[in-house]
Design a protein that fits this description.
The structure holds two protein chains of two kinds. By secondary structure, chain A is an alpha/beta fold. Helices cover 40% and strands 21% of the residues of chain A. Chain B has three domains: 279 residues, no CATH class; 131 residues, Sandwich (Jelly Rolls); 141 residues, no CATH class. Classes of the chains: A alpha/beta, B alpha+beta.
Chain lengths: 299, 622
């Protein structure tokens, strides 16, 4: 028997209504989507395009106006589905009166883990997201934005899910945190997990996603593999290391002689993210982990 | 094969239940932690301080008997207020807060049923409430114990002072009990099997008249026959009729030979109007006073006429209402009696009907409470009330628990200048032995009479109660004479009361959580206030109009059922709170607590189911 798509939607539509039942906002219009097992799928779109609505529909937090959705082959929001998925909301919506350890322990209980399993899982996850012993004992109301995202991710992974739904996973993170998050997402993919992430940070999506869908005004406007969608078919780029200036000029001349229009022939630049990471590196990482909450961070 | 499958299925079911229990416990624990982290527990010492300050600054008329009940009562009241505050303001908070802060987004994407969320919250809040009530309860216990230290010695001093001045030794028994046992003694009661039965005590030997029931003049005692099954109304409508009564009289030996007078009454009890609940209209009474001739036959004409203006010396039989015939002795000391077959109705054409049944003997009612009244007289003949204890096992009254309590809440009315006196005679029907105690009846405190264990400690017992003072009246209830047995240790007593408050709070909490599944915090608070208001004034709506009639009909049908009276008392939420008698030291029965617990579990389960249903229909992220 064929394994079902981890996420499948057919004509999925959501219309928000006002108090009197009148149609107010068409948030999503006839979305058809099928995720493949083990892929990272990015849902792109500007604010209000329907990304979060799609994720909420897939989680059963809201009900569709029309169409249908299947998650791991079952209707969304059921206990059997929730047992096998993980969800990171766009902000970490967690009980702020609990400590980091208590939070993971609580969610571990909801998944029926035994006390020993919960202890082990709590240590493992908090280590993985980089929350040290002091941070674990503090209540979440004392956490900075970055720490909140980390604990949010830890709770999403507490049940070792098959499918992860990440809503704006890098929002509010500094470049180091963003890189760690992306590394983690790739590592989870390596473990065979399917990941659906929504974001409007295009660079992040490009770095980690296998396929993307672009939503605008509730409609899916583009769908495909990242490489396919981003490839410029009529432009060819050569990158070489160790070539002298003469050799470079010879390559450009050869191109011209072959009838090509040379658009650019220059040394490539690194990304700002790479530069930042190289400069501040481990020092910034260490400081961020121990950093107490600032009033701004909690605002 | 089938057996293996069944085993596998039951194992799966058991695992699901265990997992559901873990999830509910997790939500409960988080809700409890939320209350603790919000420092709600600080309300408990505040409530305790409020109870202590209120008690210390409230005037007490008699510290020996009132200080401890008042302290316990104040403590229970403060606990109840704390429960209401916690339920209205905090139990309505977690669910809307999770919705508004979007924590529900995270929660609802876990394998957590929405009914499990509601159950967990109710349990967590009940746990929080239990912890806070326990804090208050422990503090209250310590305070009450400290208060009790002085009271015992005060009772002892007062006992020494009062002993030389007291005319009736039994009057000091309550004070002696406090001096001996301390004011923290609790007790439970054993009710009389029957009583009060009112009778006449005669001067000398009672008259030998088999089957005759006697009534005494000026006591309100009367003999009554129902006339509903007789053709009296029909006969008076078609012509003249009359009622013949054959009465017996009694006069003590040596008394003045003046004629005995009897009052004969025709009572018509109007039917209840169709569109009104509440008490029935007052009955119409027509009275004719007659001298009872030596032959004993009294004859009263009856006609069909307007009952508000009957002809002299005759009864005007009204067209509607249940008819009764009553006979009273007229003058002080007059004794009149009748037996079965004493009433004969004679109609047109000399047709006759004789009532074969014996009359009912009823006591007079002198107070507004509607309780039968014992009327005092210094000399015989005198009215007496009999209470029977038929099924008391031997050894019921152990050493140190040999008390018989006479009426905690007697309606006592006495001439202001006279110290009222009463007599209790304990009679063992198996041996004929008796003990007599004289005491001063009081409306505020019970009178304790101690029976000698050698005289009686179980088996059948009769208690005859008499008033000894002219103009004295005692309103009596079935529980006016009861055996007072040792109750629980005081700590357990207080724990039971606290548990009662917790049960009350659990229902309130479940209602608050249910309301808050669909409403914001503020609107939920308003909803709970409205619920409490309706619960408090609901009785008014249940007394009048169509609802009142419906409620009366339900009550009439439920009351005779086993446990019917308990159900009616607990239909209101306040019925779960410790009863008023609890403050006075009367132990709450285990069965009562158990039944209350079962009721609370049922109601809370229904509220949780309703809350879970409402939450399931809600779009968490809409």
């Amino acid at each position: 028997m064929d394994e079902p798509h981890p996420v499948l939607t057919q004509g999925l539509t959501k219309v928000y209504k006002d108090f009197w039942g009148r149609q107010k906002v068409h948030a999503l219009l006839g979305l058809d989507l099928a995720l493949e097992k083990g892929e990272i799928f990015g849902l792109l779109g500007p604010n209000g395009s329907g990304k979060s609505t799609t994720i909420k529909l897939l989680l059963g937090l809201i009900f569709p106006t029309a169409g249908r959705a299947r998650v791991l082959g079952m209707p969304p929001g059921t206990r059997a589905v929730n047992q096998r998925i993980g969800y990171l909301p766009e902000e970490s919506y967690l009980h702020r009166f609990l400590t980091g350890e208590e939070t993971i322990d609580f969610y571990g209980r909801l998944f029926g883990l035994s006390p020993r399993q919960r202890r082990a899982r709590t240590d493992e996850l908090l280590d993985m997201v980089g929350l040290d012993r002091r941070a674990r004992a503090r209540t979440l109301r004392e956490y900075s934005k970055g720490m909140s995202r980390r604990i949010g991710l830890a709770q999403a992974l507490v049940n070792d899910p098959e499918l992860l739904l990440l809503d704006e996973p890098t929002t509010g993170l500094d470049p180091i945190g963003t890189r760690e998050m992306k590394d983690l997402i790739l590592r989870l993919k390596g473990e065979g997990k399917t990941i659906l992430l929504s974001s409007h940070l295009l660079a992040d999506v490009r770095d980690v996603c296998d396929r993307i869908g672009i939503l605008a005004r509730g409609e899916l406007r583009e769908l495909g593999r990242v490489r396919d969608l981003l490839t410029v078919r009529d432009v060819f780029q050569v990158q070489a290391r160790g070539a002298s200036e003469e050799a470079c000029e010879a390559m450009v001349s050869a191109g011209r002689q072959a009838g090509a229009e040379i658009l650019a022939a220059e040394h490539p630049t690194t990304t700002l993210e790479d530069l930042f990471l190289r400069v501040v590196g481990a020092e910034a990482r260490g400081r961020d982990r121990d950093e107490p909450a600032s009033p701004d961070a909690d605002a | 094969m089938d057996t293996a499958r069944a085993h596998a299925r039951s194992a799966v079911t058991a695992r699901r239940r265990r997992d559901a229990g873990r999830r509910v416990a997790a939500v409960a624990l988080v809700t409890f932690r939320q209350g603790i982290r919000l420092r709600l527990w600080l309300l408990a010492p505040l409530a305790l301080a409020l109870a202590i300050v209120t008690d210390l600054f409230s005037p007490r008329f008699d510290p020996v008997f009132e200080a401890i009940p008042a302290a316990v009562g104040t403590g229970m009241l403060v606990m109840t207020v704390l429960t209401v505050i916690l339920s209205v303001f905090f139990a309505t908070y977690p669910t809307p807060a999770e919705m508004e802060s979007r924590v529900a987004y995270t929660l609802m994407t876990k394998p957590l049923g929405r009914r499990e969320v509601v159950t967990g919250k109710v349990l967590g809040l009940a746990l929080l409430l239990a912890a806070m009530l326990a804090l208050v309860g422990v503090g209250l216990y310590a305070y009450v114990r400290a208060r009790a230290i002085d009271i015992r010695s005060l009772a002892d001093r007062r006992l020494q002072e009062a002993r030389p001045r007291t005319e009736r030794a039994a009057d000091l028994n309550p004070l002696a009990a406090v001096a001996r046992q301390g004011p923290l003694a609790t007790y439970r009661y054993r009710q009389a099997s029957s009583g009060p039965e009112f009778a006449v005590r005669f001067t000398g030997e009672p008259p030998q008249a088999p089957g005759v029931l006697w009534v005494l003049g000026r006591t309100g005692m009367r003999l009554q026959w129902p006339l509903a099954e007789t053709p009296l109304r029909e006969w008076t409508a078609s012509g003249a009729a009359h009622i013949e009564l054959t009465l017996a009289t009694h006069r003590p030996p040596g008394a003045e030979k003046k004629p005995v007078k009897a009052v004969v009454r025709l009572v018509a009890r109007p039917p209840r109007p169709r569109n009104a609940a509440g008490p029935r209209p007052r009955p119409l009474k027509q009275s004719v006073e007659k001298e009872v001739p030596p032959a004993g036959t009294v004859r009263i004409p009856a006609v069909a006429a307007d009952p508000t203006s009957p002809p002299d010396g005759a009864f005007a039989v009204p067209e509607k209402g249940d008819l009764f015939l009553e006979v009273l002795a007229s003058g002080p000391g007059d004794v009149v009696g009748a037996a079965a077959g004493a009433v004969r109705i004679v109609g047109p054409g000399a047709r006759t009907v004789r009532l074969t049944e014996a009359p009912r003997r009823l006591a007079g009612v002198m107070f507004g409470f509607g309780r039968p009244t014992l009327v005092g007289a210094p000399e015989l003949p005198r009215q007496a009330a009999l209470f029977r204890f038929d099924d008391v096992p031997a050894g019921t009254l152990d050493e140190g628990a040999t008390a018989v309590e006479i009426a905690y809440s007697l309606d006592v009315s006495s001439p202001a200048t006279v110290q009222p006196g009463a007599r209790a005679t304990f009679i063992r029907p198996d041996t004929g032995a008796s003990r007599v105690f004289e005491f001063t009846p009081e409306g505020h405190h019970p009178t304790l009479l101690y029976l000698d264990r050698d005289f009686w400690h179980g088996g059948p017992l009769r208690v005859r109660l008499e008033c000894l003072t002219e103009g004295d009246h005692l309103g009596l209830l079935p529980e006016s004479v009861r055996l007072r047995l040792d109750g629980d240790p005081f700590a357990l007593h207080l724990a039971k009361g606290t548990f009662g408050v917790l049960l009350f709070g659990t229902v309130l909490t479940a209602a608050a959580v249910m309301v808050s599944t669909r409403l914001s915090w503020f609107v939920s608070i308003l909803g709970m206030v409205a619920l409490l208001a309706v619960g408090t004034v609901g009785r008014i709506f249940l007394s009048y109009g169509l609802l009142g009639r419906l409620a009366a009909l339900v009550a009439e049908r439920v009351k005779p059922l086993p446990g019917g009276e308990w159900m009616l008392a607990h239909l209101q939420l306040q019925g779960l709170l410790p009863p008023h008698t609890f403050n006075m030291g009367e132990a709450m029965a285990w069965w009562d607590l158990g039944a209350s617990l079962a009721l609370v579990l049922a109601v809370a389960t229904a509220l949780v189911a309703a809350g879970g249903h409402l939450l399931r229909k809600r779009e968490v992220a809409a």
